[in-house]
Design goal:
Layout (H helix, E strand, L loop, with lengths): L5 H22 L28 E3 L5 E3 L8 E6 L4 H17 L4 E6 L5 H11 L4 E4 L4 H5 L8 E5 L5 E6 L4 H12 L4
Parallel strand pairs: 3-4, 4-5
Antiparallel strand pairs: 1-2, 3-6, 6-7
Helix pairs in contact: 2-5
């Protein structure tokens, strides 16, 4: 068997050490060994900005819909993408709560800007979602509601279109029920 030259072995070792140190630095939690909490973190309404305003979303058929047309009852807006794993895994939980609430809260799933419409529609079908879904193709709704750019993001609007709560990250059915109970006094 042929032996590798010493400089190849040394160079490989140095590259491996640099990669190990870089991984450690990137993944270091600052020494905090406590696990992240399993609670929902919401931004209080007084610290949120945004209203439904004049933001529009686009149906998968290409029609423009004014978000303010949904005023009159609470609206739960969930921003998702077909390539976002947490988005995909939370959609059945949103559907579960939607089915339990009936018409008490309007659910709206919006595929984020850049998500291909055919992939977003395929995800909706694959996850069994029956609540209204569409596209936020120009991010006007995300911007109007102050949703930021992280996915998934769920925003609860009051009947007047004001932002009541915002949750970034995956939410499960129990967390969603708690959010609705806290903010709207709605129970399933």
């Amino acid at each position: 068997m042929a032996r590798l030259p010493l400089r190849v072995v040394v160079l490989s070792t140095v590259v491996a050490l640099i990669a190990a140190v870089a991984t450690y630095v990137l993944l270091d939690d600052g020494g905090d060994s406590t696990p992240p909490p399993d609670t929902i973190e919401l931004t209080p309404a007084e610290e949120t900005s945004g209203t439904a305003g004049s933001a529009t979303f686009t149906t998968f058929d290409g029609d423009q819909v004014d978000l303010s047309s949904l005023r009159g009852q609470p609206v739960l807006v969930n921003f998702f993408a077909s390539t976002c794993i947490p988005c995909i895994t939370e959609m059945p939980a949103l559907e579960e709560v939607h089915q339990q609430l009936g018409d008490e809260v309007t659910f709206l799933g919006l595929a984020a800007e850049g998500d291909r419409p055919e992939e977003a529609q395929a995800l909706v079908e694959r996850t069994g979602v029956t609540y209204r879904t569409a596209r936020d193709k120009d991010a006007s709704v995300m911007t109007a509601l102050g949703a930021g750019t992280l996915l998934p993001t769920t925003i609860l609007l009051g009947p007047d279109g004001e932002v009541l709560a915002r949750h970034t990250g995956k939410i499960d059915a129990d967390g969603l029920r708690q959010l609705l109970a806290d903010e709207l006094h709605v129970s399933t």
